[in-house]
Amino acid sequence: MAAVLNHALRRFFQTSAQRAVQIEGHSAVSGIHEGGYKPWKKLTFFVAFPSIILCAVNCYMVHQDHAKHPHEKKFVKYEYLAIRSKRFPWGDGNHSFVHNPKVNALPDGYEA
After folding, report:
1. pLDDT value at position 21?
2. Per the CB 3.0–4.6 Å rule, which of 35, 71, 94, 100 could disulfide with 15?
3. What is the pTM (predicted TM-score) of this model?
4. Which segments cross the bilayer (predicted)?
5. How many other C-beta atoms lie within 10 A of the C-beta of residue 43?
6. Which residues pair with 106 in a beta bridge?
7. Cβ atoms of residues 35 and 16 within 8 Å
8. In the prediction, which pLDDT does 74 show?
9. Is 58 helix (H, G, I), strand (E, B) or coil?
């Protein structure tokens, strides 16, 4: 089984020039380096693109599953977090510049 797989992988990554050398004993094309892009092209189409598509589908499904079960974080007031030595220079002075009431907690807890 391992020998068959090894032979198949070797044959898959072999260039056309290398195959011509094996068959005819010499290559009349342009040497041994001709056709080196072909294994990379095969890898791109048969490994890379399907992997990207599978990862995107997985991310989408995990996101959909996560959206079905929203959970709120329990607020724990720690004495070393959210220390306000002076007010913010915008708004009411208690909200940060990019404050999100669903995600960012104030010193006393979440707003929502």
Report:
1. 57
2. 35
3. 0.43
4. 43-63
5. 13
6. 109
7. yes
8. 84
9. helix
Place of tokens 């989408």: 60
Q: Three-class SS of residue 106? A: strand
Q: Is 42 helix (H, G, I), strand (E, B) or coil?
A: helix
**Token pair for residue 64?**
């959909």
pLDDT of the residue at 104: 86
> Tokens 């208690």 identify what position?
94
DSSP secondary structure string for all residues of 39-82: HHHHHIIIIIHHHHHHHHHHHHHHHHHHHHS--PPPP---TTSS
At 51 the pLDDT is 98
Please identify which residue in the block is written with the tokens 């020039």: 17
Kindly report each contact of residues 29-32 with a partner whose C-beta sits within 8 Å and lies 24 or more positions away, as own/partner.
none
pLDDT at 45: 97
> Which residue ranges in the chain fall short of pLDDT 50?
26-27
